[in-house]
Amino acid sequence: MSKIIGICNQKGGTGKTTTAINLSSYLGLAGKETLLVDIDPQGNATSGIGIDTSNNSFFSIYSLLMDETHFEQVIISTNWPHLSLIPSEISLTGAEIELVNITEREKKLKYVIDELKEQYAYIIIDAPPSLGLLTINVLCAVDSVIIPIQCEYYALEGMSKLLNTIKLVRERLNSNLEIEGILLTMADFRTRLTLQVIDEVKNFFKNKTFNTIIPRNIRLAEAPSFGKPIFFYDPFCVGAKAYMNLAEEILKEKIEILLPLQGVHS
């Protein structure tokens, strides 16, 4: 039985997709069969993991939600160990409108995931930066959510809406939904503001905040443009070490990576 985790925040720029890509890759490196599901119409998780969407030669999550194809035609094996992908592309933009008149529209993604979850130890879903129907689908499909929060001013702005949405989905659609944890991202420990935000978030969420804090790191920002998870771009940078720590927190065990490191640098 797999564990299904959504990465959600309606605010953009919080490190949501970076977290989805790198958490997925480290779970794969730990030997766990992992599926990354990109349900953001921008498709950044798809391109950031090295899949070229420009030639339109593949099916995407849109095709599954619209019942146009079977998941076996959609899942892509990536170049990274034990990591597969259900890609996204721009046609997903219209899905929220097209789903409106469909019966049980909030559970379309859940039905897709239910068909294939026995094949994976972990399924990580990158939600869009909104609280629309696609994000509701994510919340209905997952066991838990990771909420990335940027270590900047107004860090908690909009959180009440997200927490209220999670509460409503738990009450009406997915009684098993939990918050896996709050993930602090883009931390610059040289600034007083970062330390203040860390304290504020930990006070607000108490034991729901991950011990791991993702630092602001240029290598993390560069890696997606090369289509690589951070381990395969710069495994020794502080960002790589942070995401490995996050994966270990979720697994509750140490990760021993046995792959040779030759050639993983840019």
List the helices and strands and how they pair.
Elements: E1 3-7, H1 16-29, E2 34-38, H2 44-48, H3 61-65, E3 76-77, E4 83-86, H4 95-99, H5 108-116, E5 122-126, H6 133-141, E6 144-150, H7 159-172, E7 178-187, H8 192-205, E8 209-215, H9 218-222, H10 238-251
Parallel strand pairs: 1-5, 1-6, 2-4, 2-5, 6-7, 7-8
Antiparallel strand pairs: 3-4
What does this structure look like?
- Helices cover 35% and strands 17% of the residues.
- It has helices at residues 16-29, 44-48, 61-65, 95-99, 108-116, 133-141, 159-172, 192-205, 218-222, 238-251; strands spanning 3-7, 34-38, 76-77, 83-86, 122-126, 144-150, 178-187, 209-215.
- The longest helix has 14 residues, at 16-29.
- Strands 3-4-2-5-1-6-7-8 form an eight-stranded mixed sheet, sandwiched between helices.
- The protein has a domain at 3-145 and 213-251: Rossmann fold, CATH 3.40.50.300.
- Helix 1 packs across helix 10 (238-251) and helix 5 runs parallel beside helix 6.
- The chain is globular and about 50 Å long.
- The mean pLDDT is 92.
- By secondary structure, it is an alpha/beta fold.
- Helix 8 (192-205) links the parallel strand 7 and strand 8.
